Amino acid sequence: MTGAFRYWPRDGKHDCVFNPDHTSPNIESVYLSTVALIDKIYAK
Questions:
Q1: Tens digits of residue pLDDT in 1-44
Q2: Please, is 18 exposed, middle or buried when counting C-beta atoms within 10 Å of its C-beta (0-12, 13-18, 19+)?
Q3: pLDDT of 32
Q4: Which of 7, 28, 33, 44 is the most exposed place for a label (fewest CB within 10 A)?
Q5: Residue 19 contacts by C-beta under 8 Å, 6 or more apart in sequence?
Q6: How far apart are CA 25 and CA 42, in angstroms?
Q7: By C-alpha distance, which of 13, 18, 17 is closest to 43?
């Protein structure tokens, strides 16, 4: 593993959004990850 792939959050308070080909993730992928984390942090 190189670059950003060496780090992966383990505490569930944040996440990383990567593409396997090292390109930037699209906006929808980042948005969906953010929504999932907000839902987890502020579980109803």
A1: 455 556 667 777 778 888 888 899 999 999 999 999 899 888 86
A2: middle
A3: 95
A4: 44
A5: 25
A6: 25
A7: 13
Residue 37's alpha-carbon distances to 2, 6, 23, 24, in angstroms, are: 25, 21, 22, 20
Q: Where are the domains of the chain?
A: 3-41
Contact assessment for residue 29 and residue 17, using Cβ atoms and an 8 Å cutoff:
yes
What is residue 1's predicted lDDT score, i.e. its pLDDT? 47
The Cα angle at residue 18 between residues 36 and 25, in degrees rounded to 5: 85
